[in-house]
Write a structure and sequence with these properties.
Blueprint: H1 8-19, E1 28-33, E2 36-42, H2 45-51, H3 57-66, H4 68-75, H5 80-87, H6 96-116
Antiparallel strand pairs: 1-2
Length: about 120
């Protein structure tokens, strides 16, 4: 569903979730592998956009391969559109750092789009 098709109430809800700091337990906890927590957690979409730029690259690839980012945005943040956009990122030919950059751009674009839709 595109943001254009959303009602004003749905847009406000998404914006609120975008800016909302979720409890620590509901945050995105970055791991480099199973059982190896980085000590970094994002509690909102905005915080995720910041943290994705500084986490170890192994964490980016670990979570991307498992589709953890998409699951968190869909199930916790309730932003299915962002989850789908991340899912569409093509990794063929991308270095791990290029993947990080593309994830960052995708999340930042979504943040900007949701903020602009409220003006």
């Amino acid at each position: 569903m595109s943001s254009i098709a959303l009602s004003k109430t749905q847009i406000i809800e998404k914006r609120n979730n975008l800016l909302k700091n979720f409890p620590f337990d509901d945050g995105f906890h970055f791991f480099v592998e199973l059982g190896k927590y980085t000590g970094i957690t994002a509690s909102s979409t905005v915080e995720f956009a910041e943290k994705i730029q500084i986490i170890p690259i192994q964490s980016v690839t670990f979570h991307f391969r498992r589709q953890d980012f998409q699951k968190w945005f869909k199930n916790t943040i309730s932003d299915e559109e962002l989850a789908e956009r991340i899912d569409r990122i093509k990794t063929e030919g991308l270095s791990d750092e290029d993947l990080r950059k593309e994830l960052t751009r995708t999340v930042q674009r979504r943040i900007a789009e949701l903020m602009k839709s409220l003006q």
